[in-house]
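User: Predict the structure for this protein chain, please.
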Amino acid sequence: MRIYKSKHFKSGIISLLLLLFMLGETIMSVPIPPQVKSVVSFIFIKDKGGKPVPYGTAFFVGVKNPSDSNVYSCYLVTAKHVLYEPNTTVFLDKVFVRLNKKKGGSEYVNIPIKAEGDNRTVFTHSDTSVDIAVIPFLPNQERYDFKFITDDMITTKEAYKELNIREGSDIFFTGLFTPYTGDEKNYPVVRFGRVALVTDEKINWQGKRMDLYLIEAGSYGGNSGSPVFFYLGSDRMPGGLVLGQPVLKLAGVMQGTFLDAHEIEVVETKKVPIALSSMGIAAVVPGYKLHEILFSDELKKHRGF
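Assistant: Here is the predicted structure, written as structure tokens:
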């Protein structure tokens, strides 16, 4: 039984709602639709005393059944490292996703983590440097208030080139803000920025070379796993006139921020320790890497279409 399928989840399909921005405006001047925050949930782990600790962000994606446009397979997507034990590359046994309830408040739902074997619950990319994890997961639609983005918002690598993404293109992301997660419900924070670097070369990230976008936006602990969106207006066609609605596409999954090490002087001890500060540049795993996971032979076999 595939419990992750949804047959009447039209209220959760926000692809079209996300396109209802005003023509010719920029994302900086138009508030995002509130539905976009409903695709986001928060990942928690528990400390030694059993207290939930905010750990990262996740979001919901639905893959359409090609034979029935009303049937979707639902997945929870996050950064792979959000599922690791703190400061390791070892998967946790379980995590807790906090979901808003339709009747108010929120609830923690236990998700077991198993990355290998026949009964695996987590699917990743064949390229181990890709920091994305996909979990087949459909919460109770009557109990919980959530939505998903549809797979047509996630481009292939070939289709991405047609979007003409370049430095200066607008982006935004929504995710966990650890100083305030919400007392009773999840309240994601929304941050705005621009594409800072697009390159065909792999970028060095913590000792590994990988495919990344760089964006000019502040990313902090808890933002890992957030969905990052391109908002593409007439600027995507330099010197031309683009008619119609702006295009909103999933840029990718937030991986983290680049840190700058510098010396700070401590007068009392005469020592010079190293401090780390954000460089204001964040790394995003491209959305087409998520597409490659969702449409891998393994996951297609798992969902049965």
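Residues 7-11, 13-29, 239-243, 260-267 have pLDDT under 50 and may be disordered.
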